[in-house]
Amino acid sequence: MQIGVVGKPNTGKSTFFSASTLIDVEMQNYPFTTIEPNKxxxxxxxxxxxxxxxxxxxxxxxxxxxxxxxxxxxxIDVAGLVPGASEGKGLGNKFLDDLRKADVLIHVxxxxxxxxxxxxxxxxxxxxxxxDIEFLExxxxxxxxxxxxxxxxxxxxxxxxxxxxxxETMAQNLSGIGANKIQIDKAVSKLNLxxxxxxxxxxxxxxxxxxxxxxxxxxxxIAANKADISSKEALEKLKEKFPEKIxxxxxxxxxxxxxxAAKEKSLEYISGEKEFKKLKELNEKQEKGLNYIKENxxxxxxxxxxxxILDKAVFELLDYIAIFPGGVKKLADEHGNIxxxxxxxxFGSTVLxxxxxxxxxxxxxxxxxxxxxxxxxxxxxxxxxxxxxxxIIFKKK
Length: 397
Description:
Distance between the termini: 29 Å
Mean pLDDT: 90
Low-confidence stretches: 27-34
CATH topology of the domain at 326-394: Ubiquitin-like (UB roll)
Oligomer: single chain
């Protein structure tokens, strides 16, 4: 799974990435600071299952803090996007190509209205951030449309009547947009275009399909950044204009500050929480900074918003679930680590899907599985639920 962090320059996009990954990247107050994409590991929160078994887990990756499992996900921070990117303006072609493999996008905008359409600093409140939400979708739609139309003639006149073969042909020729067969099928079905010959699609069909397949393959959550210098009214105004979108207020710089202080053992802070605890005496400047975060971010919005955005991107937009491998008689792996792994899988995944997720040999040698919580035997087509613990019995090669 890959999460793309996107937005125009100077909105705090790279700060959001650093706050999520604790990777230091260049952050300056001018456009196109990010040229090459930054890649790193962020984490989503899952309620751990260890308490249900009265054990203490030992994660192989990520961590578990006070019963909350932090499961790793890949983030990519790409070059800032400006209007006209789909035509190659700014670093548009590079930006869009870098996003091809992303499963979901976090669109970082400047809620304070202090950054114009070119990514330049302007007077706070002088720019409407709603314009950014609209332009980013239009640019990605235009990028998709260009790829679709460029490749359409390669297969439009192929005399294929069966839907599955049509779908296979489309997926092969439209790989450049990063959409799979399921997503393409949903987009075409939504527009009732399966009954229409490829060669008969008109301009309106192309545009509607580009937008539909973008919605399916690149769902977007809005990170309304710089919320600490914005008003709640600005946030509500955006939510009223885009009621169908998930828009969350955040302060990336506040999250980054708290995480760095926690890393230095100056305070205790769990990402996503609304409180922190000081562990040692701080100087006047540090105290002032923490009081500012407490009053203008945590008390105002309930959290910095960064963790909430990551969690909702994975568990609401992508509709993923968390699955733990384990055994009825033994929850530890071969190294003695208890409940060492937690895997993120799409909703609707089966036990067999999970077996293949663990290893190809396990999937191919699958015999049966056990729901460790209930100790009940389950078949390969059994649909998994969030926080299931599953033991796979398989024939070794």
